[in-house]
Batch of 2 targets.
Target 1
Amino acid sequence: MANIFLTICVCLFLGLSECQAGENNITESDSTPEPGCDTTTNSLWKQLGALEERLNVTVRTLEEKLDANEKKLAALNSTVTQGNKMIALWFPTFFVAFSAARPVMNGNVAAGQADLPLVYAHVVSNIGNAYNPITGYFIAPVNGVYYFSFTSYFWASEGATGGSLYQNGHKVVSWYGFSKVHDVSQSNSAVLLLRAGDAVNVRVWAGYQIGDNANRYCSFNGFLLFSM
């Protein structure tokens, strides 16, 4: 497009130069200019005007496409921002997970007249150090949704086994079993919405029992699903 414009400009210049030269060669007795000069000049001006219009149309078209692309880019940036927020929500920059088992014991242990908080002293993993193997409590480090599970074991005998998962002292889910002939294995789980500082632990009900041995059948596990 630029080459065409330049060519026309050169032609216009040459045409005007020829006309000027023709006018200079006209004698005083002949004051009539060459008939082709005005025609050539007008033609070149018309071509130049048409070219200018085409250039203006092209510029407007490019501006419209640029504006449309800028809007698409803004929408894409917004989508990326939302995606980053979702990634940050589902994949927090910190991680919390633990798994612990009861210490080695043989036979059943009975709770007294009060619930017996279980201490899972054998720590398998404790990412984030939110679980305390001395007290048996998990303390939520951040607001979020957490998953917990526990398992229990009871050697066949007189009595029964039963207990619950507690959140801030409130019973959430439980287990129960009884058999004089067969050993009883139980488990349960829950998804909890916790605030930072909330406490979760497992307790055997007053008057009930729990058993284990070196195989470590009794465990307490949990991890952060996502923060809020």
Target 2
Amino acid sequence: MRGTVIALALAVSACTERTSAPPAATGAGIVLGPDSGVGAQICETLPQEEIAALAGAPVQPGQVAGPLGSACAWDFETTGIVLVQVMTPDYWESFANPSDSRHQELSGIGSEAFVQPGLVSGWSAGALFADRLVVAEVTGPTSTSGLAEGVLRGVVGRLVPGGG
């Protein structure tokens, strides 16, 4: 399952062509930019126990995932994963899919936010901020829109300057 999510993240990132490197951004201990090791920073910032509490189920230790190591993924002890990714805001259009009938706008988080079905399975929630996009993906038999939203809301305070 993790391979599917990682492949999806790579596919989405490949869809957005860049003409120059994104500017580095800092805040809440996470530094964005080329070769910044964002995934490792996320794994270090969000401990396994915190993700397990947000997900409502035990998870394995986080592992760097996603395109260019831009995410951290925690496997559930049963089936599925929790994946948290931080990117520059220009990826917003690649993630938000308002044409999906199950896409829901969220309020009280970022300048824009959503929850919607994942590209292949599970649920995805994302929030746009001035200098970053934070996405939480949850897959597996217990994944719901509410779980994806809860994970997103739970991690934003640790990953966004000023706590989101």
